[in-house]
Amino acid sequence: MTVASTLTLEMLGKPFLLEKRIVLLHAIQEHGSISKAAKVVPMSYKSAWEAVDIMNSLSPEPIVYTETGGKDGGGTTITDYGERLLKSYALLKEEHSRFLERLSELTDIDNGTFKTIERFTLQVSARNQWYANVIHIDYSDVECILSLKLKNGLLLESHITREAAENLSLEVGREVFAIIKSNAIHCRRLSCQIQGKDPQIEGFIEKIQSDKGLSKIVVDVGSNFRVVSVMSTDKIKDLNEDMRVGLWIDPQDILIGR
Amino acid sequence: MTVASTLTLEMLGKPFLLEKRIVLLHAIQEHGSISKAAKVVPMSYKSAWEAVDIMNSLSPEPIVYTETGGKDGGGTTITDYGERLLKSYALLKEEHSRFLERLSELTDIDNGTFKTIERFTLQVSARNQWYANVIHIDYSDVECILSLKLKNGLLLESHITREAAENLSLEVGREVFAIIKSNAIHCRRLSCQIQGKDPQIEGFIEKIQSDKGLSKIVVDVGSNFRVVSVMSTDKIKDLNEDMRVGLWIDPQDILIGR
DNA sequence: TATCATTATATACCTTAATACATAACGCTA
DNA sequence: TAGCGTTATGTATTAAGGTATATAATGATA
C-alpha cells in the first residue's frame, strides 16, 4: 500500500497551480512559446492556452507575458513573479514528497493500521538543525550512541534512547537531522577545555548580540555553515567578534530528527 | 492562496482508499446497506456497489461483508479489518491536514514565495512530546520565556531564542508541543530539591529498566500521561517501582515544536 | 504587400465517469 | 408461493474535459 497525493494551490477557491500546469509553465520557460510547450508536454494548444489564461487571471500579478505577432510570430515568457512561483512550488512539492514518504513508511498493511508514533509534522524551535549521516550505532539496553557525520565532514556523537532510535528506524547510512538547542552549545576560547575535553568544532565569531543576562553568538564554522550559541553574558566577556573559538556540545543534548 | 491536497492510498498502483470511498464506508457502517448508504452520501447505487467491489478485490482481506436475500433482503457490514482501515485513514488524514495547514501558513503570496524556514516534516527522537498551550510570552533581546499550560493543567516554563519564537510565529493562545529529551528530565525522591527548587511534576514510577550505566524510568503523572526519564543508574539507587517521585526539568531543556 | 510563427477564439468530436433506469437473483417471511 | 428489500448486473443517457481542427488577428520582416 502506498500513499499518493496531489498538491494543488488554490486561489479564491479555484485550482491555481497544479502539477500539470507547473509542467506546462516549465515547458514554456524552456521553449518560449505556448504552442511549442503544448507539443512537448504533450497537450492540445487550446488546453495549454486556457491553462495559461486561467492562471494569469487568478494571479494577483501576471505569471506569463505573451506577445502576438512580430519577428517570430510572438511568444510567451515567464515573468519574474512566475519564476518565483515555480521555485516556491518546487520547494513545497519537495516538502510534500518528504511527508508522503514518511507517511508511507509508517503504514503497516498487514493489520491495516498506521503506526503514528509521534507527531511528525513538526517544526522545531532549535536554531541548529544539521543534516547528517548515521555512520555507526552502538546499542545498549536503554541508550543508543549514534556517530554522525555532518555534510562538512565533522563528526559528532549523539545519545538518544534506544526506543527513540527504533521509532525513527535509524540505521547506518540513514540521513537525519542533528537538532541542538542554542543554549546547549558552549562557546569558549580555543585554549579552554570543558570537562577535560577539546572542542568538537572550531570557528570564527561572526556576531555577538547581548542583552543584560544573555548573549547570542553566531559562529561561522566554514562551508557556509553557521552555529548559534546562547550563553550567559558574564561567561563570554573574553570573547570578541572575529575571534577564533571552540564549540562544545554534550552528546546528551543532540536530538535526532528525520 | 491556500494549499489543497487529496489523500489517496493505492494498492498495486490503483486507487484503493480515497476520500469519497471513505465517506461511503462510513455511511455503510452506519446504515448497514449499500443502497441506503448510497442514498445518504449521495451517489448512485451502481457507483457505490462498484466502489465497494473494487475495494474488496484490491484489499488483501475483505473490507465489507455482503449478504443477499434474507430477512431484510440482506445487507452490508464493515469487517473488523475494514474498521481498522477507517480508523487508520482518519489518523493519516489528520496528520495530512496538519501538514497542509502549516504549509498554507508558510506561503507568502505577496512576493510569490514560501518561507520554508526549517524542515518541518520532522519526526523527533525525544521521548517526551507534550501538547501545550502558550499562556504567556516574555521577550528579551536574545531569549524568550514561554509559559506553557499542559493538557492536564500543569504549568511549565521554556526558554528558547527570540528568533526561534518568531520563526514559529508563537503567540499567546498558540497550541504547541513541549519537547524534552528523556535525559533532561531528572527523577528524584519527592523530598529532594534540585538547586533549591521543588519538582515541577509529581508521579508514580511505573517501570524502571536498567543496564550497567543507565536507567530508563517511566513515570505515570496521572491523566493517562507518561513521562520518560533517563538517569545514570547509580543516581537512582534509592528509587523503586510504584514509588511517588518528583520530576525536575530545566526550562533551558524544553524545545518547542508546532 | 505577402509571408511567417505565433496568440487568440470558436466549433465539432471523443473519452471518461457518473447517473438514471431496468432487471435478475437471493433468501427470509407471512 | 407471493412479497419484500437488498445485492448483483446490464444498458442508455448525461456532463465535463480534453482533443482535433479550423480560422482570425497580430506585427516584424523580406
SSE layout and pairing:
Two copies of one chain form a homodimer.
Chain A: E1 2-4, E2 8-11, E3 14-17, H1 19-31, H2 34-40, H3 45-58, E4 64-68, E5 74-78, H4 80-106, E6 107-108, E7 113-114, E8 128-139, E9 143-150, E10 155-161, H5 162-167, E11 175-180, E12 185-189, E13 201-210, E14 214-220, E15 226-232, E16 244-249, E17 255-257
Antiparallel strand pairs in A: 2-3, 4-5, 6-7, 8-9, 8-11, 9-10, 11-17, 12-16, 13-14, 13-16, 14-15
Chain A binds a DNA duplex (30 and 30 nucleotides) through helix 2, helix 3, strand 4 and strand 5.
Explain what this protein looks like in three dimensions.
Two copies of one chain form a homodimer. Chain A has 258 residues and is an alpha+beta fold. Chain A has three domains: 9-103, Winged helix-like DNA-binding domain superfamily/Winged helix DNA-binding domain (Arc Repressor Mutant, subunit A, Orthogonal Bundle), CATH 1.10.10.10; 128-178, OB fold (Dihydrolipoamide Acetyltransferase, E2P) (Beta Barrel), CATH 2.40.50; 180-250, OB fold (Dihydrolipoamide Acetyltransferase, E2P). The first copy, chain A, is built from five helices and 17 strands. The first copy, chain A, has a five-stranded antiparallel sheet. A five-stranded antiparallel sheet of chain A has the order 12-16-13-14-15, with no helix packed on it. In chain A, a hairpin with a 4-residue loop joins strand 6 and strand 7. In chain A, helix 1 (19-31) crosses helix 2 (34-40) and helix 2 (34-40) crosses helix 3. The first copy, chain A, is extended and about 75 Å long. Chains A and B meet through strand 1, strand 2, helix 4, strand 7 and strand 10 of A and strand 1, strand 2, helix 4, strand 7 and strand 10 of B. Strand 1 (2-4) of chain A pairs antiparallel with strand 2 (8-11) of chain B, so a sheet runs across the interface. Chain A binds a DNA duplex (30 and 30 nucleotides) through residues 33-36, 43-47, 49, 53, 66-76.
